[in-house]
Structures are given as C-alpha cells and as structure tokens.
Specification:
By secondary structure, the protein is α/β, with parallel strands linked by helices. The protein contains 18 helices and eight strands. The strands form two sheets. Strands 5-4-3-6-7-8 form a six-stranded mixed β-sheet. Strands 1-2 form a two-stranded antiparallel sheet. Helix 2 packs antiparallel against helix 3, helix 6 packs across helix 9 and helix 9 packs across helix 10.
Length: about 475
Amino acid sequence: MVDGGLPAHLDGFVRAVREAGIPVGISAAVDAAQVLTVVDLLDREQLRHGLAAVLLQRAAQRQTYDVLFDLWWPLSDRPAVPAEVDEDAPAPEDGIPDADRQAALAAELRAELLRRLLDGDEEALRRFARMAVDQLGQGQPSPSGQSFFSYRVLRALSPDTLVSQLLDGLLGGADRGGLAEQVARQTVRERLAAFRAAVEAEVRRRSAAERGRDRVARTAVKPLADQVDFLRAQSADLAELRRSVAPLARRLAARLSAKRRLGREGRLDFRKTVRASLATGGVPVVTHHKPRAVHKPELVVLCDISGSVAGFSHFTLMLTQALREHFSGVRAFAFVDSTDEVTRFFSPGADVADAVQRIGREAEVVTFDGHSDYGNAFGVFAEKWATAVGPKTSLLVLGDGRTNYRQPGLPVLADLVRRSRSAYWLNPEPARLWGSGDSAADKYGQVIPMIEVRNAAQLAEFVTTL
C-alpha cells in the first residue's frame, strides 16, 4: 500500500509535467500511479525511467521531464563528502586567507573530479557534484533569492581543461589518432556533460528549497522545441526544430493524398449508368462516374527573410525544403524589399543551412536599403511571376507584416489571393501586436486569412487545416 502522501506528491509532479507543455492524459496519470507500486522507490533512476515510460510520447520531451523529475524527486539529504577529501582541513580561524583556502579546496576537488570522471560511475559523479555545489557554489543571494550558482562551481573546477588528462587515462598506452581516440573523446564529452548536468540539477534542487519548487520550475524548465517562439529561437532550438519539419511535411502529404484518393470519382457518367441499368431491369443499381482529373498539389511560398523574422523564415524555408521532397509543384520566393525565386536552392537532398546562406549571398532580395518593403516586394512578384499563382495554386505568405511605414501593396496582394485556389498568411507575431506601430497585419487580414503561428505547435495545427 502506497503511503498517503505519495499520491499527492505524484499528482503535483504530473501537473507540473502537464504545465510544462507535455500532454499527459488521465490514463497516463493512472499508469504513473501504478508505476509506484512496481518499481523500487529507493532506486531513483528506476523510478525516473518508469515514470518517463508512461508520461512521455517523444524523445524531445525528455530534457524537460528530467529537469522536473530532479525538482520533485531530489537526491536524499545524506552527506555527499567523498572519502578522499580531507575532513580535517584547517578551520577558518587558522589565519590562512579565504582566497588561498578556496584555491586549495578547488585544487583538491579538481583532482577528485578527475578521478571520478575516469571511473565513470554516474551515481558517484552526481554525489560529487552535490558536494562541489555545497562547498563552491554558494555566493551572495541574487534579487530573486537564489544563493547557489552552477557557474561558480564550473569556474572553480574548470572541467573542460581536464580533457587531455582524461584522454591519457582512458587511452592508457594506446596510440593517438585512431578509432580508440575517437571513442575516448566521445566518452569524455559525455562524462563532462553528465557532470555539468548534475551540477545544474543540484543548484536547481537547492534553489527549490530556498524559493519554492513551483517558482523554480517556471524559470528552469525550457519550453519544448515546438513551443519555442520562432522570433526568439536560438541555434540549438533551430537544430531541434529541424527534426520536427519532416513529420510536418509527411502529415501534409498524407492529408493531401487522402483527399485525392477520396475524390477520384468525378461527375456521374449518365450514358454508362443507363446502359448498365438494362441488365437490372432499368434500375441503376450500379452508378458509373467519369474519372476526375487529379492535379498535382501546387504551392507557392512567399517568405519575408528580413532580419526581424530570421528565426521564423529559417524554419519556414526548412518546411519548404521538406515539402519539395514530397511534391514537385512547390515554388519558393523570398523577399526583403524586392523578390526573387529561391526554389533552385532547395533541390532534393540539399542542406537547408547551406541553402539559407546561399539565399543571403546570391538571391536578389535587396534593392534599396535592405529593410522590409512589402508593397514593392509584392509588386515585383506580380510583375515577374504573374503565372505562378493560378486556380490550382495554394499561396502561403510568411512574415510579420511590418512595412517600415511604406506602402503595403494591398491591391496587388488582393489580386493574388483572388487568383489563387486558397491563400493564407502565417504571422509569427502575437495577434495582439497586429496593427501596432508599422504593422499592417490588420489591413492584410482584411484581404487574406491572417493566422498567428509563433511556434511549431501552432504551425502543426495549421498544417492539419491546409
């Protein structure tokens, strides 16, 4: 029988996981309670993996989950001082300056860290990290109330400078430059990353004890990749977002393929139906239809690649590349204050990062000062590629709609929308900002459906409706 306080604690943990953006249904929460009855509650890692197995659906959610798990299921409060550390060190009143004492302590712990990294015992490394935070991580409290900091520990121990010694220890007498060194370097990277993660987890644990677990969770947990705002995405976020593009393109392909399969039959073929009914006494038991002419999906993407929407344009160009691998009728156009077709940069198998760099160097998207000019960009597109948009074409415009107080080109855009089969504008800015300052999004929204797409989750929702 599980202790009465444990279900409430588990409920708080499940709520925190759900609030972090990881969908957890009632059945998964029930399964999590069942996990507590079958795993060894004294084995923290067994509990971690058991709950992850029932609460998570994607590997990308694991980092967020681990941060929350460390806050809700912290290490025990048993002393974490390793036997090798001298517990009879001189007391502070021995006359030795604090700076010298700290330097000696850091040197001693640094030597101990080298031994722990060479041993590769993950549990011992975590407990050493806890002890290092206790002795080196405390500083003056910040305005938020935090008094332990991971950067103080990492600066004092400088684990990255131990790479050469770690390689010597792992390789032994083996020659450098071969496969053995590559394996050893990968092992070193993994162990150093594990130590840094353990230090950060311990700092979060202590901060949670000082400031409250819920408060720390709101600031320590990074948004999931599909919830990161495009306009604030960093390079690491874009790398994770790149992995979500292919599934989005496959979903879009599957939906369009299903529509084509369901719509293969065209209008009723009256002559064949009447002829077939003669065999059943004139009753049209079986109807015949004329074959429907199925056209290949045609998509035109018109993308603002100015600096203000760099993260968003990078992601949407990745989506364009993925769509080109599924459909032959995808054409991409980029603009800043002029427009150029960039489809040629997205040949099947091309690297998206290289394509984006080539667009910046080779595409003729800047004519004047390099600031967004939607009116001129739309005009150039309509003049040079008037036939690109037709009755079978879906038009996607991607940008924030900020015109730098220049002409928005509404008549040209309205004509493009009228000639297209369907048209949508995806805007990475929050809807509450549309129409503020130099934003013409509210005006554009009168001639084309304006959809807020600030992250990959919203884009995935849009894809299901395209």
